[in-house]
Amino acid sequence: MPDFLQFCVSGLTVGAVYALVALGFTIIYNASDVVNFAQGEFVMIGGMTTVFITAAGVPLHFAIPAAILAAMVIGLLLHRLAIEPARGASAVTLIIITIGASIFLRGGAQIVFDKQFHSLPAFSGDTPVMIGGAAVLPQSFWVLGGAAVIVALLWFFFNRTLLGKAVLATAANRLAARLVGINTSFVVGFSFVLSAAIGAIAGILVAPITLTSYDIGALLALKGFAAAMLGGMGNPLGAIVGGLAVGLLEALGAGYISSTYKDAIAFIVILAVLFVLPGGFFGRASTERV
Amino acid sequence: MTNLMTRMGLAALFAGAAAMASPASAADTIKIGSSLAITGPASFLGDPEAKTLELYVKKINEAGGVNGKQLELVVYDDGANANNARTFATRLVEDDGIVAMIGGSSTGATMAMIPVFEDAGIPFISLAGAVVIVDPVKPFVFKTPHTDKMACEKIFEDMKAKGIAKVGMISGTGGFGKSMHGQCLGVAGNYGIEIVADETYGPKDSDMTPQLTNIKSAPGLQAVVNPGFGQGPAIVTRNFKQLGFDVPLYQSHGVASKSFIELAGDAAEGVRLPASALLVAEKLPDDDPQKAVVTSYKAAYEEATGQPVSTFGGHAYDGLMMLVEAMQRAGSEDPQAIRDELEKTSGFMGTAGVVNMSPSDHLGLDLTAFRMLEIRDGDWVLAD
Questions:
Q1: B27-146+294-367 topology per CATH
Q2: Fewer CB within 10 A of the terminal residue: chain A, N end or C end?
């Protein structure tokens, strides 16, 4: 039983990060039909920028907002310089552009930062808390709590603010949204900035546990993509459930089946979803979009 | 008319430059080749190796060179890519005309280059880890670093002395971790060690608590061994502390750099590992025969580069010095003569330990070359 709890804690912590990455996918996908494969790079930028700003002597509580801001600026630039000029292109073309952007950002990070692994000090110490025989790092609570706060804020934003409603309207029908006076180009740009901020926060929260380096983004993007697919592409609740589920599956798979295939589990999930449940848990039937 | 004059002038200039360049490099210098992973994923190996070779070739030349001739170092960056290494090896033999080769930072690059130097009959001193490089022995191939098999033996020897018999292993699935894992399983029986749990993690795995949880619940567990390098062992060490193990953790010589201690933080406290004496140069007792070599190399490297010394640069130092001594004993730069003398190397004191080569042993190190280190207060100390 303590073993099972330990696997769950491990899976939920990693899963919360996948969930935030999947949430980033979802927001951009809803606003623009683009699957942004540079989403993992935002996670990397958040963690690495915080590491390097704190290394320069800036206290953590100033470094974190600065790193989030840096990621938001890069998210905006990604939209303005790479996505916006190609706005007439098909979604597939735009997706390929985001893959290119992710390779570019990774290469840039190698030069701006370095190629080493880095860690951040844990926000509230390294002494594990024992829960029913499972050792839980205080940082895990930060990750899970941070994810919960982000989800709550997003819910409020989408349901209670005009800008949030504008994003939802753009997601539902871009032409109709434009006809009622919504600046859809601004909304799409805004969704990139919002996704970048969420990715960066995930990267900062998890850096004290999993370490960070210039190339962590690609694998996170793939796992987050698997999570978004599992939950149903385009559904925020699905992204959260999918992320936690992929994290749990990985941890339980490594614990009870074989650690050799831990990384393969996310990809098995993608295949299984495509074959058995193309819409994911909460996905709309794919015909609805046609 | 002016056009013709210009052309003739240029032609004369080129001819003159060519005439001046060629004899200087042909007769008066000894060309040594090298192909290292200066950039790329194994740059933590190749970077200090290249800096060490350049530093010491310069020092040797300032002191008058070898056999009255200056050394000339030709270095290529293979980025740990075996294909590139093979191409550079051919270029070094056919175009650059080297008499001896040092390098190959990684085992993959080394294995790709071996046939080139074996065919050309040029001595090749590899700086890579795996035992396959010198086992079976190849006439022209030597190596300086300890093997992964020796690391396993050193760890198990230490365990046996402490009465530890039941061991859990968590190994990286990268080349190094996989190879050492296999070597450890092979020699465990010789030390009466039983592997009670055997887990792995991928090169990019960021959380090893599930694997360690399984190891922790293995019955009778007395110690854990973690073969691997890079960030993996640092995360294993952190997770190991998080889960509150009450048995010792053994790491491999793959983590013998300061960045491991930085990444693992407090969790590194008490971790034991086999490594070269270089890491504890100042802490060696004064009567230790290796002290003079390691302190002087450490001081020279740190002064020249401003970076902390690593064992990997030390392997390049050992290779270059053994080569220079072999050339001095041979009194010539004939590749065959250098090879014959390299094989006779005995009592050479390098940063890795005492080297005694023989026709059946092209490594020449024994287990005494490894020191058992422990991490205390964020620094290496000699264990026990």
A1: Rossmann fold (3.40.50)
A2: C
- pLDDT less than 50: residues of chain A: 286-290
Burial class from Cβ neighbours inside 10 Å (0-12, 13-18, 19+) for residue A237 reads: middle
Interchain CB contact of A251 with B (< 8 Å): yes
φ/ψ of residue B26, rounded to 5: -80, -50
Nearest CA in chain B to A258: B199
pLDDT score, position A289: 43
Is residue A83 within 8 Å of residue A188, measured between CB atoms? yes
Secondary structure letter of residue A285 according to DSSP: P
For A117, residues 6+ apart whose C-beta sits below 8 A from its C-beta are: A211, A212, A213, B230, B231, B234, B259, B263
Measure CA of the first residue to CA of the last residue in chain B; give whole Å.
Answer: 85
State the helix-helix crossing angle for A39-55 and A60-77, rounded to 10 degrees: 140
Domain limits at A77? 2-216
Domain-located, residue A282? no
Rounded Cα–Cα distance for residues B94 and B103 (Å): 17
The pLDDT score that the predictor gives to residue B23 is 40
Which A residues 13-52 touch B at CB under 8 Å?
Answer: 13-14
Q: In the predicted model, what is the mean pLDDT of residues B203-211?
A: 86
ipTM: 0.82
CA A205, A208, A214, A217 dihedral sign is: negative
Q: Report the domain count for chain A.
A: 1
Cβ contact, residue pair A209, B199, below 8 Å: no
**B149-275 topology per CATH:** Rossmann fold (3.40.50)
pLDDT tens figures, B249-303:
999 988 887 888 888 888 899 999 998 888 888 888 888 889 999 999 999 999 9
